[in-house]
User: What shape does this take?
Amino acid sequence: MNTATSAGTSTSTSTTRAPALPAPVRSPEPPPGVPPRSRSRSRSRSTAGLRRAVGRLPSLLLKGATKSAAVVALLLLWEVAPRLGLVDRTFLPPFSEVAGAWWELAADGQLADHTGASLARSFSGFGLAVAVAVPLGLLIGWYRPVADLLGPLLEVFRNTAALALLPVFVLLLGIGETSKISIVVYACTWPVLLNTISAVRNVDPTLLRLARSMDLSAPRLFQKVILPSSVPVMFTGIRLAGAASILVLVAAEMIGAKAGLGYLINSSQYNFAIPQMYAGILTISAIGVAFNQVLVTVERRLSSWRVPAAG
Assistant: This one.
């Protein structure tokens, strides 16, 4: 009897025993030196960044389409108007012909040679103008005696157009590179100089009083207060000078030059190569837009400390 009871008990115990759980699956070991938490955080950050980029894609596409709509419409009008006889295609060929002429100039190396010559002159004059005008503008804007001394000269020369002085530069400096770079320096100096003077004079007086209450020296005052506050207005003049450096140079290259975009436009006009002439004009426009965008990017980097206005 006891044997049967014990046998039944052992049988029931064996039948009611819970099934064995499967062995837990171990996650792969992280690389040595990388904690698991940091790996998960980096993975979640990359996923969140990808989601934000995908979410912003429609708005970026819409913004790009809005900005380029006017340009596309102008190019379409340029293409269609000569073909429909709205304008004489002899003097305004369709955009496709101008694009073909631009490609031919680029393929045989002429466009690169002329563009390189113009950029070398333009950037040289622009750089010299900025190097001279910014320190001089800071000096005139900060020290009243210097402004009183140089003020009459500034008023005389700022109202004299650079192209009006082009014959003078050619007579004094010849028709070589010196006269062309000099006229660019002259044209670029005034926007940078006048905007720098205005920027220094319009620094917030509260900031100046706070800086002086901290007993900052003159160099530290310029470094910490005046220069940062002057950057936005100063860069307005620098961007104007960047546009002037290209426009004035093109006019200067039409006199006594053997290379450059101005020379290309002038010689194409004389030879009645109208598509090549428009190709040179488009190249100048593209360079101006790219140069302005570079200056805008630099301005944003230097003005990153500014707090954007609300609303």
Notes: The radius of gyration is 34 Å. Residues 1-16, 307-311 have pLDDT under 50 and may be disordered. The longest helix spans residues 36-83. The CA atoms of residues 104 and 210 lie 62 Å apart.
